[in-house]
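step=predict obj=DUF934 domain-containing protein n=142
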Amino acid sequence: MDEVQFRFRDDEAVDHPAVTVDSFVDQSNASAVRIEPGDDARALLPLLDRIRLVEVNFPSFTDGRGYSAARILREAGYAGEMRAVGDVLIDQLPHMRRCGFDSFAPQKPLDEADARAAFDRWPEVYQAAIDGRAPIWAKRHG
């Protein structure tokens, strides 16, 4: 995945507001979808070419289902904006980025300097993910 700017916003104009997964499947003019916990992101796979924005809701920092939704869509080739919304915390940002999120709209404001520091905190990773960073073992053993 190419390097991207980390955006903390919810003000980007899209053609249509984000709709639920079920509504998106039924609407031919929608370009933004919101995935709620329990929604099956795989329902969107045949429609990836229509989507400009995917919002993934994290109603609680303890609910990790949104990570899986993001990874499913990125691994299937979705290249548009993937926005984490809701109870998004500083400590989660690096993990969210590794799963494919490139913008964030937390319900409580985050300090951008703290967020950038969180992204840079661990230069090495242990497993492969959608962000394309090489795991430490691959660097060591080629």
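step=describe
The longest helix spans residues 65-75.
step=end
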